[in-house]
Amino acid sequence: MALPKPSINAYAVITGASQGIGYAMAKDLARMGYNVMLVARRKAMLETFAQELHAAHGVDAIAYPCDLADSKQRQGLVEKLANTEVNILINSAGIASFGPFKDQDWDYETNQFELNATAVFELTHAVLPQMLKRKEGAICNVGSAAGNVPIPNNATYVFTKAGVNAFTEALHYELKGTGVHCTLLAPGPVREAEIPEAEQSVVDKVVPDFLWTTYESCSRETLEAIAKNKRRVVPGPLSKAMNAISAVAPTAVLAPVMGKFYSNLS
After folding, report:
1. Is 11 one of the catalytic residues?
2. What domains are there in the chain, each with its CATH number?
3. In angstroms, rounded to a whole number, what is the distance separating the alpha carbons of residues 25 and 5?
4. Any catalytic annotation for residue 157?
5. Which of 24, 56, 111, 260 is the most buried if burial means most Cβ atoms within 10 Å?
6. What is the crossing angle of helices 106-113 and 155-174, to 10°?
7. What's the pTM value of the predicted model, to 2 decimals?
8. pLDDT tens digit string along 182-231?
9. Where does the source fall among the domains of life (predicted)?
10. Catalytic residue among 157, 240, 260, 262
């Protein structure tokens, strides 16, 4: 099995394309010859990025500014996708919050749910019928290793990511034999290859450099996994360790320990 072949009429749609995993995957897909539709909130950044990808790789690169936490803007994108041949969808956009759930800003929490969960749900539904009709397509939803464990002080995030994890893996099995691939990307901590000391977070300083996954290596490993129609890809040593530990460690032991760590991030 392989990724759908690049086509002059088809697009790889990447949300969260202005930074992080989405940015890295958009660069790799354009390099591989795919036309790309870049989705994120920052219009100027997206337009510049689209121009760079077109100049470097000769592909058609569309900047589509959209706040995926806004239902009206999201519906506009759904309508756009209905009239676009989409052969790859990467649902990468996401945000997180830390600290006691009762103390969080409610608008931010509801936006987090809309972005992390509802957008994935709706965009996957928007492209799936056309992929099934063509018997070809690939969907990758970015969940998280954090979605494997109930983590205090990260409640809304793990709520959304646990849903994305289970939803994507369920679809993976539903779509067996259809020609459409559905893969869950469940990373742990991912970051830039190099971060100036002044910009390092508490996590950056605590976790040794060799354990981190870079956005670039995450993208490469994920695209390889999608091509092989893997159910779940967990890139990088720290992510793999987190995934293994969450599968065997008792929740009653693991959750309080992780919750204490996450309380320091708020």
Report:
1. no
2. 10-263 (3.40.50.720)
3. 16
4. yes
5. 24
6. 10
7. 0.87
8. 999 998 776 554 445 554 454 545 555 656 678 999 999 999 999 999 99
9. Bacteria
10. 157
